[in-house]
Design a protein that fits this description.
alpha/beta; 22 helices; Rossmann fold
């Protein structure tokens, strides 16, 4: 793989690689990793590339999981490390940059989970954090980049002495001004070159001895340092010099320690850069909705799903799928000008280059071959005056490619043979492509030549595709259409640009005269392919709509069934709970009756018992239309809808009837009754056909005495056997008890699709203590 400036310029011109890498570098935290990203090139070191892709994958997952490793604030410290190694003294601002890097490296060391991000964790574990140097710099240098006043004991002492000396001199100055105000122009002191002075009238400038530092603009006064101030001023300046020397000593000592740790710090810098580069890749691939590519060396097949060039507007860019199957080496793209052919070439080429540089790609899925060499030729042939030089340059690059191409070569060629006589150019393009196929290269190319498309259609190693063009609106759709060669639409575009219709018609006639039979057949084939493709798209859309409607209908049906089942279960549970409550109350009243002898107490309890029966009737659903119009009479056999049982009417008074059900006389409202045929009690064996094996199957199951869970298990086994033996009607004996076992049995029966219906047994079959089950 070439690795020089000319190759980089070739990549930038052909694929806009520099702009894409700058986009990725924008996600880096500091200049070191941003520079590394911008300088990246494809390489042939497979171990390196796969390691980089693994790190990018971990970084993407790290970011998607909402985690972050902040490296903001750090800078490229390599130059500072070199200065310190040479013995140069770093400034406090430069020492602060070293400290920020040390702190970031220390925080980074514990940022990654070993199980989830093994590669990043391994890099972070290799960081050799120097906590002593970090602490020493932090103790001396503030976050504003200045040396702290307490950076050393000596500096604390000197600063204290300086403050005391300045305070004493200030007091002496105030006393001097007060005592000699008549000779002064101002009743305040001033500072000249760091020394305390007073402004004295011209005639008194020698009155106080000391030194004269200058005069006022008018010459009427002079700045005088009286002899009384000289010693104190000199002491203050001496202290200030000692303070600066101490600051320099502190910086020199810290710089010496930085120089001693330079090798380790430079290694840590490389590690931090590696981690930040991976994190930038992870953040970028999420932003472009891309993926981590897979590289294979089995064959030349490639697959890019939903790929789009990252420099395009994401809201407007059209993403496409690109494939080369096993045995195919050339992806040839045709179609009209400005239809997206060059963008398609750049997108596929960019994905190949990024993948082999260890970067994610702007596609939802990417499988690419491993390439040993890459060539790119995308030129601008629009200037007539440069046709000769453009064609010569074009052929020079093609010659270098043909001479050096072999298995593992990737070539991206825009308009092979363009810029010369069309017939010669087309023939030259076919010859070049045939040679590259024989050498084992993978080629992406575009063409307008009918001869080249005709040849490609006939060669199994070539996949001829096109960029879609809307013939109605005369606008490109930028959709890639696989295995369909596209027309150039030159006449249509020319008409849209305002060319006279008679000129276009003359051009069409001349084309018909000069076109060969092969070209005409190819055009007919292209039109037929386009028609078939559009029909397939419409058919596919109809199928998709049908599947969607069927899915929605199934969901609504399932939802309705679930809701119906829930309502039924809720009603049954509520009814059982209320019946249990009334039964408990009735049993308590009966117990009270046994212990009472007074007539009025018995009458009161009987009234309460009757009221319970009336309350039970309130639980019953509204009568059916048949019950509303039916006239009941004594002797009718009826169903008690609220209790799901049946019996015979013994007496009717007003709107209530006395019904004998399950051996118990019950007073109910006529509206809670439904007429039904009197059941004929027969043995189950006589109601359905059985063979010799089925005749031995018991027609009833006794669950009395079992717990609910034990009873349901027995019921499950029994009903399975009933189905196997083709039983049609069976009886489940569960007793009345507390009603829990009966409720559980009914709930289980309601869920079985092998059950046709179930109801409480008649008076002679066990009443509420048994259930008659009819199987399908």
């Amino acid at each position: 793989m070439r690795n020089d400036n000319s190759f980089r310029q070739e990549l930038d011109q052909a694929l806009d690689l520099g702009d894409v890498l700058s986009q990725i570098a924008g996600y880096a935290s500091f200049s070191g990793s941003a520079r590394r990203i911008r300088e990246s090139l494809p390489v042939t070191d497979r171990l390196f590339v796969r390691g980089q892709l693994d790190l990018a994958r971990e970084a993407r997952d790290f970011a998607q999981n909402g985690q972050s490793a902040s490296l903001a604030g750090i800078t490229d410290i390599r130059e500072l490390l070199q200065m310190a190694e040479k013995g140069q003294v770093l400034t406090t601002q430069e020492l602060l940059e070293i400290y920020l890097f040390l702190r970031a490296a220390a925080m980074l060391a514990d940022s990654f989970d070993q199980e989830l991000y093994s590669g990043l964790a391994e890099l972070a574990d290799s960081l050799v954090t120097d906590s002593r140097l970090e602490s020493a710099i932090a103790q001396a240098v503030g976050m504003d980049g200045t040396l702290k006043s307490d950076a050393s004991p000596a500096l604390v002492r000197l600063n204290r002495e300086l403050a005391q000396a300045k305070s004493a001199l200030a007091a002496r100055g105030r006393e001097f001004v007060k005592k000699n105000s008549s000779a002064l122009m101002e009743t305040m002191t001033t500072s000249i070159a760091g020394r305390l002075c007073v402004l004295v009238k011209a005639q008194d400038k020698y009155r106080f001895g000391g030194m004269i530092h200058g005069s006022s603009q008018s010459g009427q006064a002079f700045y005088v340092e009286p002899s009384a101030f000289v010693e104190a001023n000199s002491h203050i300046q001496s202290l200030q010099a000692e303070i600066e020397e101490e600051k320099h000593r502190i910086c020199r000592e810290l710089s010496r320690r930085v120089g001693a740790a330079a090798f380790t710090l430079e290694s840590d810098f490389e590690t931090v850069t590696e981690i930040d580069t991976a994190l930038a890749k992870g953040r970028w691939v999420i932003s472009v909705d891309g993926s981590i590519p897979s590289l294979q060396d089995r064959d030349l097949s490639l697959r890019l799903i939903h790929a789009a060039h990252p420099l395009l507007d994401r809201e407007k860019a059209v993403a496409n799928d690109y494939r080369l199957k096993t045995g195919q080496q050339v992806l040839m793209i045709s179609g009209p000008n400005m239809g997206g052919k060059t963008v398609t070439l750049k997108t596929v080429g960019l994905c190949a280059v990024l993948a082999q540089s260890g970067f994610p790609v702007p596609a939802h899925e990417a499988l690419l071959p491993w390439y040993e060499d890459m060539w790119f030729d995308i030129g601008d042939n629009q200037s007539i005056s440069e046709n000769l030089s453009t064609f010569s340059s074009h052929m020079t690059r093609i010659s270098s490619l043909v001479n050096g191409a072999g298995k593992g070569t990737f070539a991206l060629l825009d308009e092979v043979g363009n810029g010369t006589d069309p017939l010669e150019g087309a023939s030259l393009a076919v010859a070049v492509l045939e040679n590259l196929i024989q050498s084992g290269a993978t080629v992406l190319t575009s063409t307008h030549y009918s001869q080249v498309k005709s040849w490609g259609k006939a060669d199994p190693a070539v996949l001829v595709s096109s960029m879609e063009f809307d013939a109605q609106s005369l606008k490109p759709t930028y959709r890639y259409v696989e295995d369909v060669s596209g027309a150039s639409y030159a006449f249509d575009i020319a008409a849209r640009c305002g060319l006279k219709p008679e000129v276009i018609e003359r051009a069409r006639q001349r084309k018909e005269l000069e076109a060969s039979q092969v070209e005409r057949e190819l055009e007919n084939l292209e039109r037929l392919q386009e028609t078939v493709r559009k029909k397939e798209e419409r058919f596919g859309a109809l199928i998709e709509d049908a599947h969607r409607l069927q899915k929605e209908a199934d969901q609504e049906k399932a939802k309705a069934q679930k809701e119906r089942s829930r309502l039924r279960e809720d009603y049954a549970a509520s009814l059982d709970a209320m019946l249990e409550e009334k039964r408990t109350e009735a049993e308590r009243i009966i117990q009270d009756l046994k212990g009472k002898e007074k007539l009025h107490e018995l009458v009161a309890d009987r009234t309460r018992l009757n009221s319970l029966q009336e309350d039970e009737m309130l639980l019953e659903p509204a009568p059916s239309p048949a019950a509303k119009n039916h006239v009941f009479k004594v002797g009718d056999y009826v169903r008690l809808t609220g209790l799901n049982t049946h019996g015979e009417i013994l007496d009717i008074r007003r709107k209530e009837a006395t019904v004998l059900a399950n051996g118990i006389k019950t007073r109910v409202k006529l509206s809670a009754l439904e007429p039904m045929a009197r059941p004929v009690i027969t043995k189950p064996a006589r109601t359905h056909r059985v063979d010799s094996v089925a005749s031995r199957f018991p027609s009833e199951l006794n669950l009395i005495g079992m717990h609910v869970e034990e009873g349901l298990q027995a019921l499950d086994r029994y009903l399975d056997q009933a189905v196997v033996h083709h039983a049609s009607v069976v009886r489940i004996i569960h007793g009345m008890g507390t009603g829990k076992l009966r409720a559980a049995v009914w709930k289980d029966l309601s869920r079985r699709n092998t059950i046709k219906k179930y109801e409480a047994a008649g008076p002679s079959e066990g009443g509420l203590g048994a259930t008659i089950v009819t199987l399908r």
